[in-house]
From TrEMBL:
Gene3D superfamilies: Spore Coat Polysaccharide Biosynthesis Protein SpsA, Chain A (3.90.550.10). One of its GO terms (molecular function) is nucleotidyltransferase activity. This is Nucleotidyltransferase family protein. The lineage of its organism: Bacteria, Pseudomonadati, Pseudomonadota, Alphaproteobacteria, Hyphomicrobiales. It holds the Pfam family NTP_transferase. InterPro entries: GlmU-like (IPR050065), NTP_transferase_dom (IPR005835), Nucleotide-diphossugar_trans (IPR029044). CDD domains: NTP_transferase_like_1. Keywords: Nucleotidyltransferase, Transferase. The keyword S-adenosyl-L-methionine does not apply. It comes from Ectorhizobium quercum. Residues 6-111 form the Nucleotidyl transferase domain.
Length: 245
């Protein structure tokens, strides 16, 4: 399935990135000379996305000004200046600007470096994997050893059938949620107004046996604090050197 629309979650306060985020929103922090939100949008564009909603709150004017300079994908703004809606409430509001149907949801403060050719882009793979008949959501996941900047927490256990369960000590095949989802806009249509976390939606899908995961072919990076930027840039340089070798 080719999914051509996306919701990018970019409205957080970025408190752990202070003092940098006192003057710029976290998605505009540069890692390796490129903002994190542009790295995320690059991956979506390569995956076939032509329209993306981006929600804004903290230093929203700077976010909007930056995004106006981008031609692809087409960007729509979901304004949360009045009140933050958390990941679930933000996605629910943003979906109203998109067509009903399949959609990617992605966090704006993380990205990854792909292994292999561009036609194997992880969003294209995730779209092909997602089957709304048997899945509420398909999450892109990554083994902990293929991450940089992660806090070490194991989020899920990935079963042999692709189903995800919340990770508990001793479970097999631990994975980290890579911050990207394939789902349908209708999944949140009955959610209550106001803030709520997508974690609640994950747990509801697990209870129905309808939360699935796909393993990222690549290396996943995030930078949650000022000190972590250097770590991410070192990893990027290492990955680039390996690709040239």
């Amino acid at each position: 399935m080719i999914i051509q629309q996306a919701m990018v979650l970019a409205a957080g306060l970025g408190t752990r990135m202070r003092p940098i985020t006192d003057t710029i929103p976290k998605p505009l922090v540069e890692v390796g000379g490129r903002t994190m939100i542009d790295r995320a949008l690059d991956l979506l564009e390569e995956g076939g996305v032509t329209r993306a909603v981006v929600n804004v709150h903290h230093l929203a004017d700077k976010m909007e000004a930056h995004l106006k300079g981008r031609r692809h994908p087409d960007i729509l703004i979901s304004d949360e200046r009045d009140a933050l809606l958390d990941s679930g409430g933000g996605a629910r509001k943003g979906f109203r600007l998109l067509e009903d149907g399949p959609v990617f949801v992605m966090n704006s403060d993380l990205f990854w470096v792909e292994d292999g050719p561009k036609e194997q882009n992880s969003f294209r793979r995730l779209g092909d994997f997602f089957d709304p008949a048997r899945m509420d959501m398909a999450l892109l996941c990554v083994p902990p050893e293929r991450t940089t900047g992660h806090n070490g927490k194991r989020d899920f256990s990935l079963g042999p059938d692709g189903r995800l369960k919340r990770y508990r000590d001793g479970m097999d095949d631990p994975v980290v949620y890579a911050g990207a989802i394939a789902m349908t806009t209708g999944l949140l249509c009955d959610a209550p107004e106001g803030p709520f976390s997508l974690n609640r939606t994950f747990d509801e899908a697990i209870a129905r046996g309808r939360l699935f995961g796909l393993t990222l072919h690549g290396h996943w990076l995030t930078a949650g604090t000022p000190d972590a930027i250097g770590e991410a840039e070192t990893a990027l340089a290492r990955l680039a050197a390996g690709a040239r070798a």
